[in-house]
Every structure is written in C-alpha cells, then in structure tokens.
C-alpha cells in the first residue's frame, strides 16, 4: 500500500511575520485548514504512474438507495449485536433461515434458495420474504460506467450489483441493464466491496449474464467467494490485490486494504484520466475516507493538467443522516482538492450533499425519482458525464 502521510501542496513561507499570522489563525481555529499546517509534513515523492488517457466517462445511477428506512436498518444492526457482527449472521435477505435477527448463517440461508439461482429469482424471493428480517427494506447500490477511448470506442462496466433481488431486477429493467448484459455490451462487473448492499444482489446480474468477468478486491471472506459460485457465475473471477491496477487506457482501480464494519475488508475504487480535463474518481462507498482517496491519487497517478476534475459515488460522510460537527472537517477538506464537478449520493448522506452545496462546491443535483429522496444529490436514474472539451 502507498504511504498515507498527509501531503503538502504549497510551499511554506518562512519568517517572523508568518509565525505571527499562524499563531493568530491557530487561535481562531483556522490553522487546521490553512496551507501553513503542511509545513510540518514531509514532502511527498509522487510516483506519477501513467494510466493512459480516455475521452469520456459517463455514469448512470442504477440505484443508490441501498435501504429505504434508516431506522429499520440501524434497529436491525443494534438488535443483532452491533456493527462488528458478521453481516452474514444478521438474517437479512437473501440469507435468512427464519431463526430471527442475529441468528442466521450463510450456509443455512443459502440452502433454502440455491436451487433457484440465478434463473428463478421470483421463487427465491418468495422464500426470502418469508424467512428474512425486513426484506422490504433492502435496496442496493449499482452504477453503469461508460468509458470512451480516444478513438471513439465505448466500453461499459457495471460497478456493484445491489442487494434486493426484486428491487435490483426492477432497476436493471428500468435502465436497460438486463438487455446490455444479455447482449454482452457490459464487459465486466467490478465489485467495490463485500457489503450486503453492493454485492448480495449478484444473482440478478447472473440471471442475465452468468459468464461475465468479475473483479473483487482482495479480502473477501469465504462466504463471499462461495456466493459468487452459488449465484451461478461461470466466468472468470479476478481477485484484485491492494494497490493500483490498470484496466484500460485512462482507467484504473485502486484496492485499499482497510477494515470495514460488518466484518468486511478491503474496498476497490476507480480512477479515470480524462483528456484535457484531469482525474475523475469513482467510488462505491469510500470506506477508506475521502482524504485518503484523494491523497492516494495525488501520490500514485499522473493525470491531465495535474487537476482533480470530478468525483462520483458514495463518500461515506453521515450515511445515516446523524450529523456530527466532526464531519465538517471532511466537508472542508474536500474543498482543498478543487474538484470541478461533484456527483454524490448513497452513503454521502443528504445532509452532507447539502453541506457541499452550502460550501459552494460544484455539486450536480438530481431529480429525486424512483424513490430517491432529495434533489441535493444524484438519485436513481440520474446521469453524470465527465468529458474532454
């Protein structure tokens, strides 16, 4: 993994006058957000890895609504023993066996539905509804990525595959993902991390294309790897190791080896180098944190104009809308990178998106359709595009 020492992007101006100014700013609480604080950090040796260049990235939000009611989800988590409990034990869909909250297991739940995967999802979902805790609250996160090369050819990738079989199948049909999978237009499924709302809807993808190549970050547990098989996958499974991996010209992933709640480990995020514009960062949940996400790109990758052009996805700030003043630090820190276009949703939180807007960041707003709750961020069915002028 790369060094995570905070970076210095400006020179430190020495002298007595600066010392006086820094002292005053520190007393006012501004020092933490000023360039002066970076004087204490060692200079970073940037690797400047060349990932190539692409012309355009278009992101279609298939579903950002991972669950529909925060209160139900948090009540289940607390009732099952908290955020450190193995997610496969919650008895959530699709692995419920009727034993009740916090008393489930992958093996028992899968035994009830395996024979129906992936073709007969309606029958599987009937069993899931009868045996699982709060199946109606399950939604999912998934996005369609369209990457245009400099020669005009377009390549499509699916980022994550949601949670609920019923909800995700509805969303796939709404956005035409089912047809794209069946025709082979979508070249691969990239899983950001093993969490229920990004990965457990896998049989819906398998229903339409069971041989699709799948990329998962290193750190998946035995249940997750077994689920890929049990879902009916017949294609290549690639376990991506921590660090930078090039996918195609202008597109790379980075696996962050970080522990995550609900006994999950590792997150895979994406970087795109857009010709004449700069770097675009795309993430599922950003459990590694937006500071590490941006710092890593700065340290690792060479990109156009040395500019952070855009960001899309869940940024994991107040995902349950429980704002804490400490989150303001993250809102402020996002501004230092100078993103020219911000597309956020999912675990970013609506309150966070509104904070971004209040701070004057260039947030692309949504339409609040298909059960997304607010126009402050890109909701279900909304699209954002990053492209060369």
Number of domain units: 3
Please write the CATH class name of the largest domain: Alpha Beta
> Could you tell me the mean pLDDT?
90
Order of helices and strands: HEEHHHEEHHEHHEHEEEEEHEEHEHE
Can you say what the CATH homologous superfamily of the largest domain is?
Ribonuclease Z/Hydroxyacylglutathione hydrolase-like
CATH fold naming of the largest domain: Metallo-beta-lactamase, Chain A
Beta-strand fraction estimate: 15-25%
Number of helices: 12
Query: Termini distance?
Result: 34 Å
Classify the secondary structure makeup into a structural class.
alpha/beta
- Strand count, sense and closure of the main sheet? 7 strands, mixed
Using only CA atoms, what is the Rg? Answer: 21 Å
- At CATH level 2, the architecture of the largest domain is 4-Layer Sandwich
Helical content stands at 25-40%
The number of strands is 15
Gross morphology is globular
Short description:
This protein is an alpha/beta fold and 389 residues long.
Give an overview in words.
With 389 residues, the chain is of the alpha/beta class. The protein is built from 12 helices and 15 strands. 28% of the residues lie in helices and 22% in strands. The chain has 3 domains: 1-45, no CATH class; 49-66 and 139-387, Ribonuclease Z/Hydroxyacylglutathione hydrolase-like (Metallo-beta-lactamase, Chain A), CATH 3.60.15.10; 74-131, no CATH class. Helix 9 (222-230) links the parallel strand 6 and strand 7 (237-240). The longest helix is centred in the N-terminal third of the chain and has 12 residues, at 16-27. Strands 7-6-5-4-3-2-15 form a 7-stranded mixed β-sheet. Strands 8-9-10-11-13-14 form a 6-stranded mixed β-sheet, covered by helices on one side.
